[in-house]
Amino acid sequence: MKWNMQMEEIEAILEKIWDLHDKLSDAIHSISRSHFLTSIKTLTNSSHNQNDTVVAETTPDGNGFVFVKDFRPQCEEVDDAVHEAKSLNAIRTALENLEDQLEFFHGLVYC
């Protein structure tokens, strides 16, 4: 009886994690799309030379990012949105790690 209750609790927690993961992914996608459209609008309105404007780099953890030289956020709101997306991504990654651990323990209980 005790194991059945714990199994139901784990499954309920996993459901909540999946819901939160989906909501975070939607928010990150919305912020990214908004930032992309703003950057494209700014680049097309700029009269600067478009040659060699993009530089790709890789972070130590293997994630890549792109700098667009001619694009600078027009206001702090855009920059804040990028930081918010990065924060949401960190939270989503933590949820994925928690999900992996719970699924591991969930599998141990069934064995």
TrEMBL record:
<dbReference type="InterPro" id="IPR038939">
    <property type="entry name" value="PDV1/PDV2"/>
</dbReference>
<dbReference type="GO" id="GO:0010020">
    <property type="term" value="P:chloroplast fission"/>
</dbReference>
<protein>
    <submittedName>
        <fullName>Plastid division protein PDV1-like</fullName>
    </submittedName>
</protein>
